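Task card 7
Instruction: Convert sequence to structure tokens.
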Amino acid sequence: MLPCTHRRTVGLAVVLLITAGVALSEKTKLDEDGIYDFREDKIFDDVIEGKRIVSVFFHDPHLAASESVKYEYRLACKELKEEGVDMQYGIVDTSNANTRGLLRRFSIFRVPTVLIFHESIPYQFYGNLTRTGLVEVMREHAQPNWKSDHADGIVTELSDDTIQDFTLSRRAVMMMFYAPWCNHCKQMEPAYMDAAEMMQEHKPAVPFGRVDGAKYSDISTRFNVTGFPTLIFYRNGQEIRYDGARSAHEIAQWIKVRIAPASTPLKPLAGAAKKHGTISKDAVVVGFFPSDEAPELVTFHELADAFRGDLKFAHMIGSDAMEIARQEFGVTSDALGFVIIRDSRLPVRKGEKKYAVFDDDMFDYAAAKTFVENNFRSLVNFGTKKNWMMRFAPIRPLVVVMTDIEWESTRLIQHEIDQLAQVAEKFPDINFAIADPEEMGELVPQLGLSDHDEDAVACFIEDERSRFPLPGAFTADKMIEHLQRHENGELKPYYRSQKEPSRNQGPVKTLVASSFERLAGDVSKDVVILFVTQVSSDCQKFEAVLKKVHKQLVSDSTLFFRFDVELNDLPVNFNAPSTPSLAMWPSGKERSSQPEVYKGRRRIDSILEFIRKNSGLSQSSTAEDPAPASKAESEQQSDHEEL
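Output:
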């Protein structure tokens, strides 16, 4: 079954609140125990901002363990309130669609968990999730002289004079580019410090540094930093950008993968390579070389490094290794060879073996890399949170089946694997994956599968804009018919969309996926869209500036909208570069074409100039001469800007 967190159980939520005896005040959002009940992300920001310290408990009411800790948390809050401890308290129901953005925002992967906010900066709770453990840690955080226990100097402050030595004199380093005014940087700082401590204790240790990118703009330019925060990992002079979750654990694990040996040495024993593949529970690339001085071994390590973090590599050396390559895999070259041993749990296409052999006498890096990319997949493949971005996000078309997976015993879903393999045999130009919906999280609603409660559901992804969820439960016959109907042009793509507001008033109206064509499709008008996320105070500030721009423009021929990119799919071929972002489709320009993107500062006069410059309307129709903006209005800008 799909996990409860992916179902709309509004009635159950109401029953839970009544049985808990929690009476909410619509005005204050406080329950009868004086604890904030965060039902919407925007309420969360309203409460957190401006408070000295707020403790927030994240839970899922569908999980018994989570509800048990919630009871302990309430007891702890009550005890601290009775003591008069200076702290605010809150609870977030993470199964609520209106609060799920907070999980991504604060890189929360498991619940229950607690974050403690000091002046809006989140700190991870470290302690026992019992009444006693919660009281002890929260009481400590509430002390007026509390400070993070990060060791002084754990992160090196870098400048023009020190950055070159820092990056070039060490095998591996991590750097964060930040700006003092950037709220996102402030929120990330505790996680970055925690990761620095973790890697300080790791062998080998990895030094962490940080650069005030606003102060040292020349360094930002040199490293092509265009926004804050930006994390860059340097290994042996090679620059790698970190684009993972902003949590200490994820940062540290990402670094550990990149400093570990790219290829694992294996003893040249009969069956060792195949056994290594079985134990790995994934595709494995194994190289065979006559000696450790073989020049091809260097190329093999470079190849392994290119797939670091995605595919596992191993190697054998010696005459016995070459004999194993010949006897077990049919390698014909005496100088080198490597095999890709595919995931032993998954089927391969008819006529294929469980492994693929590369044994060209000339070990060309580019040819070897292409060979690996084209041959490591099985007929059906497992998609996980760890491998999705590298293995499946780039490839299209793709069919993905979502079903509960017990990773220690994948035989429990053998029926679904066999059914998907039947489909894959008939459609050789399509890729196929099977994944666990609870693990894949946000991908489930993106594919239009949230409201299904069947044991297995599926979606065909033609490209980033075209997704076709299968109605009802997945079977091979239904999926084959679904794909045939797509080939015949009988299916319409799914676009994730918020419900359109019943009253859509004001200068900047709300645009959702389902209303895009109707509200923004009129090519006789200029359309200006602010792309936002509902949890961002940064976006709210930009929207306030845009409302003043509308007031200054005084034109019925220019339409202003806000569009939440986390809750809606944009049904045109454009991706907002970041949020908040401002884009404009001038009149006369088809909405299927690329818009003009605003790249200036968030000032009223600059935005007005951008709109007038790009307008498809005659200048006389765009506006009357605007009233001069006040200095406060024209200089209003956000805390988080692109450089």
